[in-house]
Amino acid sequence: MYLAIGSNLGSKVINIEKAKLLLLTNNIKIIKCSNYYETYSWPNKNFPKYLNIVVKIKTKLNLHNLFTLVKSIEKKLGRKKMRVNYPRICDIDIIDYNEKSLSSNVYNHKVTVPHPRMKTRNFVLIPLLDVCKNWVHPESRENISELISKFNFTDLRSIKVL
Questions:
Q1: Strand blocks (E) in 97-146
Q2: Phi and psi based region of residue 63 (left: phi greater than 0; alpha: psi -120 to 50; beta: remaining)
Q3: pTM for this one?
Q4: Cβ 33 vs Cβ 73: under 8 Å
Q5: What pLDDT, in 10s, does the model give residues 78-111?
Q6: What structural domains does the chain harbor?
Q7: Are 73 and 106 in contact (CB under 8 A)?
Q8: What angle do CA 13, 118, 58 make, to 5 degrees?
Q9: Which stretches of 29-152 are DSSP H helices?
């Protein structure tokens, strides 16, 4: 299982580290963590830049309960309801759940794994490559190297390891 964690408000590294600590204190084992990556905010590059990581985790929680937990962690860290793609203290997305293709409705919110837009996000795939070089997309069956090779040069240059 893989989670993407990002922040573009406040002390970004501290926000991400607090999110990791809250995962650990809720019986989520972090197996491996990527490097930190900095990217421009999307779609508005005028917003603060993001820091992003991907963590490989182990948990006994089902998809529904894992989603509920990550949303509660975001809220504990100070995430407020904002417009889509607006800056946030913490954003945690479930990228992959046991290499399965699943959907669940949680409080009128549809949760889908693998994350539906992950294939187009360099800030997810590059950190995911750090933690799992042989990861394969559960639906398309493309390996991570194939997915990354589809990015253009500008997309790849717009992400920076810290």
A1: 102-106, 109-113
A2: alpha
A3: 0.92
A4: no
A5: 887 766 667 889 999 999 999 988 887 776 677 8
A6: 2-161 (3.30.70.560)
A7: no
A8: 65
A9: 63-76, 122-131, 144-149
